[in-house]
Fold this protein.
Amino acid sequence: MIAQMSRKSDIYHRPGCPYISRIHESHIEAFDMDDHKITHFQPCKYCCNMKTMYRKIQPNLPEIFGIFNYQTEYNGQYIKVHTDSYDWRILLKASEQNMRLLREIRENNGDDLKLIKCDVMKKEKNLQTVIKYIVNQENSVLIQNPSAIRLCRSKNLQLDIVWKLHMMSQLYIF
Ligand SMILES: [Zn+2]
């Protein structure tokens, strides 16, 4: 992911930030957000925070989640994502713009809450990538779903074909 900034400032922006248009074209500089020099600059308070990123991605969520049920909410600290299978938290480390993905696990009849880190997301800077990862997890749960497997055996179908039909909403296995 690319960040843009003015050579005359130490504040950088994410792509699409309206404040980029205020920078004179000849002063615009771009660098990769994975570049370590990001730690020497300040993130823009408008475009580099979860609230703005969440608002921006919200209209695309039905398309990203497709057939899966989901609820999302930004509570001021992190984005809560609830799906049929799991509860997730997406956090942002502002200074490095890295996102962390945590999965909630409840034990003792829901009394104890444990948070599991998803290390694959350690250096992710793009919210859409994190949410797509969640959808992939949901996808793999469906593939492991006993009722999906039973249906394949009874109809003599391949599991990936059942999955494709399910994606096209021609077949409801739940
Ligand atoms: Zn900005």
Summary: Residues 127-143 form the longest helix (17 residues). Helices lie at 50-57, 61-65, 127-143, 146-155, 159-167. The first strand starts at residue 2 and ends at 6. The chain is about 30% helix and 30% strand.
